[in-house]
Specification:
about 100 residues, mainly alpha, 4 helices, elongated
């Protein structure tokens, strides 16, 4: 069971794709949804660099086609704006003085 959180701002979401209907959402649906579920997009977060690294990994390891620079820019802008990096959800490691001695 995948549980995704939506951004705090209320935005229109496309019922068919689950994508936030802003900017280049249809471009993202076409390019990303051609290979995998769009839940992989909506359940992930990242800044522009993280999304770019994800695209490069898919191109290198998963046979994602090369995107022309304008298309890539529009996709990255959409992803970074609508599915931005969020604060870490794990607590920080305990300080050494809180750990038991071995």
């Amino acid at each position: 069971l995948m549980v995704c959180t939506m951004p705090t701002a209320v935005a229109a979401v496309d019922e068919q794709t689950g994508l936030i209907k802003k900017g280049a959402w249809q471009l993202v649906a076409a390019h990303c949804g051609g290979c995998h579920s769009l839940q992989l997009v909506t359940c992930n977060r990242g800044d522009r660099q993280i999304w770019l690294e994800t695209i490069r990994w898919m191109q290198k390891r998963q046979n994602l086609w090369q995107l022309d620079p304008q298309t890539e820019d529009q996709i990255l802008t959409y992803l970074a704006d609508n599915y931005p990096a969020s604060a870490p959800r794990r607590r920080k490691p305990l300080a050494a003085h809180f750990l038991p001695t071995n």
